Amino acid sequence: MLDVSMYIDGEWKWRSAKGDNTRNIFNPATGEVIATAAEGNEDDAQAAITAARKAFDSGPWPDMGVDKRAEYLFKIADNMEEKQQALTQLETMNNGKTFPEASYDVSDAAACFRYYGELIKKSSDQTIDVPDPMQSIITHEPIGVCGLIVPWNFPLLISAWKLAPALAAGNTVILKPAEITPLTAIKLFEIFDAVGLPNGVANLVLGAGDTVGNKLATDHEVDKISFTGGTETGRHIMRAAAGNIKDVSLELGGKSPNIIFADADFETAVDYALYGTFFGAGQVCTAGSRILVEESIHDLFIERLVNRAKNIKVKPGNQTGAEMGPLVSEDHFNNVMSYIEAGQQEGATLRCGGKRLLSPDLENGFFVEPTIFTDVKEDMKIVQEEIFGPVAVVQTFKDEQEAIRLANGTDYGLAGSVFTTDDKKAMRVIKKVRAGITWINAYHAAYNEAPWGGYKQSGIGRGLGTYGLEEFQEVKQINVNLQVEPVNWFSE
Ligand code: NDP
């Protein structure tokens, strides 16, 4: 059993600033308590903000040469890779995802630190041509104290996606993991401690969103909030951040369309439709949870899709051959089940799944069968709202125009894909899909180098790539007069 502490101003804090509340951390595959975490509150968030403010205003980090900052990031990446196996096991134990999924997250998170270490060394400052005798320089500076609020579906990876660019740019940070999945974040902060990040540069506060998270979003000493999570919480954070006009980046929910044309490579399209929907038990913001199939292949496609979905091996993530793990918590499980019920009540046809898995080895975990609905209507709750579980809805379309209209028919705009062997059609259609992350004849591929984020109510700003670094930078113009003499605008 682990005891999990906070990390504030370079010190581990088991007791919170007021009281010593703790929270049990569960394994969602077994329902067992696997750790006890310190439960932070507003006072702990305040202590972390004060430490981060001091480290930014008077510490070495923002002014440190980029080569030196990059060295820290490379050491963090090396250290993560050395601990690959332990981090993978911990992520599976706390989040429920399968070993291959967790292992990928760890490698990708380490690669993210390495990528931003390299990127920050390449100066993006510019000199602009302006009339003599002036010279204009465009330079990039850190924003200041950044609050990083992350969800439970990719606890380590999304933390890395925010921490690596924020630290590379010279900011100081406060990370707030989701209260139910703090374990790999703690290990990451042990690595920060081991590589000797200066005190106050990176702080970790545990606790609930409506106390600790809200404090970060409202506090005037915090200059930026980078948030990933649900759209409703994103809306709340925007309002909370208005007090000091904080810089806000939001990566929110999705209900992403996966458009399958009749001329697609059939087996590839079926395979990716499964992968798009059921990877991570569907607890993925970009999940291709709306499968749009051209009418002429609909029945054949559904038959094959349902057969393959029924074969998905749903097991605890640490078991050999597990292809899909449990949902992350009992609350979330109840939420997903309520959507499945709503779908049936609204009159959609349940083609497979829909039930909790209750065999003796699974009954204490939150396992749900891969679930597919057909005969859905556009205005149904299960078509419009993010379910965030292993539930796909299949819509049909007659032609390109209808496919595009349906694809864009929700408030979300995070991701989307098109399957066809007609290259021109693929480009024509994908350009019309109002989403920030798209694929042609593929799904879910993500790269540290490529911008990540959504249109519409799926968010503001972009993580990853050069765009992800810019989200943590201010841009300044420095105009230099090369001929020092009075301007004489006003007469003597
Ligand atoms: P939330 O949006 O509530 O949680 C994400 C993070 O925000 C967590 O760290 C949470 O803290 C924190 N948070 C919650 N409330 C506040 C607040 N008032 N101020 C600041 N921070 C806050 O997601 P849920 O876990 O409740 O999931 C709800 C739905 O959101 C899911 O069903 C799914 O549809 C969507 N979602 C989308 C994700 C994505 O990747 N886009 C990721 C997760 C969820 P804590 O949990 O500790 O209270």
Automatic annotation (TrEMBL):
One Gene Ontology molecular-function label: oxidoreductase activity, acting on the aldehyde or oxo group of donors, NAD or NADP as acceptor
Active site positions, chain numbering: E251, C285
Top-level taxon in the UniProt lineage: Bacteria
Keyword Oxidoreductase in record: yes
Pfam families in the record: Aldedh (PF00171)
PROSITE patterns per the UniProt record, alphabetical: ALDEHYDE_DEHYDR_GLU
Aldehyde dehydrogenase domain sequence ranges: 14-478
A GO BP annotation: aldehyde metabolic process
Keyword RNA-binding: no
Keywords, sorted A to Z: Oxidoreductase
Family: Belongs to the aldehyde dehydrogenase family.
Name of the protein in its database record: Aldehyde dehydrogenase
